[in-house]
Amino acid sequence: MRKINTSDVFKMARLLREGNIAEAVRKAYLDGKKEGADSEDIGMNAIFDILCSCTDPSVEDQFCDLLAGICEKKKEDISNQSIETTVGDLKRICEENNIVNFFRSASRLGGKIQG
Hints:
Number of strands: 0
Order of helices and strands: HHHHHHH
Strand content: under 5%
Structural class: mainly alpha
Helix content: over 70%
């Protein structure tokens, strides 16, 4: 698994716009700023909200493409792996990267793309 890069932020911005998940990202960011926040619970809630937003096939494709790049897997492998593996990949991404900064950057870009 590699670190999140600039290209990933732009891919996430497109997902924010097309998947209508900007609110889930904002909520996770704001929840993370609260005193006594449990980062694992916040991360799992964010993952759930984001996955539930990926109901459009083109958004699913973009999500799999983004995850495949970060996880250094083929997009088809992401599409065909178990949900447990996908959630595990997302948790590792959150743990190995400063995900708050990533969401902050992506949500700002997503807002600029929408506006």
